[in-house]
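Sequence in, structure out. First:
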Amino acid sequence: MQLTGQRGQADDALRGLRAIKDTATAFNKADKLFIVSPLTGWTDSMITRYLAQNAIPEHPAKAAGAVTIGCVLCGGGAQFSNSGFPILRRQCPDLWRQFMVDWKAGEIVLAIKFDQPLPVIRQAIDRLGGLEAIADRMPHVFDYLRILPMGGYDK
């Protein structure tokens, strides 16, 4: 079983999958896996009220302005309006550096962003002095997975 924290409202706004996945419990035949989303019917006000009633602090990424949140490293995505990468870079610079430089996630971000294979990206990184040099001089290049927003992104 896969347990998610996906809410119906977030699903509608971010992915438009309500027509496909209009249930709190679904069975994925291909993976032979039950997917359970107990918060499917929860709204923003319900979440806010629950957090206040139970004295649960707001997620640091959400408090810093993230639209959606996920794990501390990605913050829910790397799109233009809700990327967690710049928030992680400002809030937890050491963790951001470990992720982008030490674990080499920066290579993958750049490969996706520029639609190039890793060997080409690695050569370009080497020409620029390495991931660490790029992270020091222009850390913003790792903030998003696209050079420009996709057409119709503001919808």
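Second:
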Amino acid sequence: GVVKIFPGSPLAQKAMGAEVSVLTALGDDPSLPVPRFVGIGEYAHENGDLWHLLVMTRIEGSDWLSADPAKPEKRALAGALGEVLKRVHAITPEGPLADWPVDHWAVDRGAAMSSVPGRLAAQAADFVAEIATLPPDPVFVHGDLMALHVFVDGDTLTGIIDWGDALVADRPYELAKLHLDLFEADKALLRRFLGAYGWPKDAAFAQRCLAQAFLRQAHCVAQHGRCDVFHKLPGLVAMDDLPDLNALADRLFRV
């Protein structure tokens, strides 16, 4: 098995509560490739705080980053992720989940700390507010599908770990880390994922995705002080020629 240690801070306890809630709910479907909840424990840390332990089963394979799948394997894995996440998004866990309310200032601060060019980042808060007027599509999401949290063995998806950031959010929130980190903005992988999922898209799909990526950035900064959901983009996508965030949304997410 695996033991995950949570310090005594309120933030860490909140994350552990969310992860226990999620793993308990996901455990109702034994075919889902996720760790199985075993139990929790606690111990007195030397600093005087009460720290907690989360015990779960081990996931086979290697994380995506270490495995570095070949292109054909990535396409198969993108499809498998689409099929799995469609099922995950239909689940409603009971108990606490992550909750990171943000306001205009938080979005603005988060965008300013990202790798998005400053003149575009300055538009983020107004852009997010405008997209927020569209009808929402709330689902339960993992929220942090980066390369270290997806485990594979060749072209087989073996597991998705680290559910402490899971929350109910607008569906495209899931694509922030999935596309901008795991897929490295590869639209061919995004198309494969969306097709396998049967993702519901409207005319504002690309704009919804970028707005949710800025919200994920704001949440991440609130959690960790510093964060950059967009950190891979300068080496992958040209951004300096873009006039506004609508154009950036199209460049990143229009499929």
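Remark: The longest strand covers residues 37-44.
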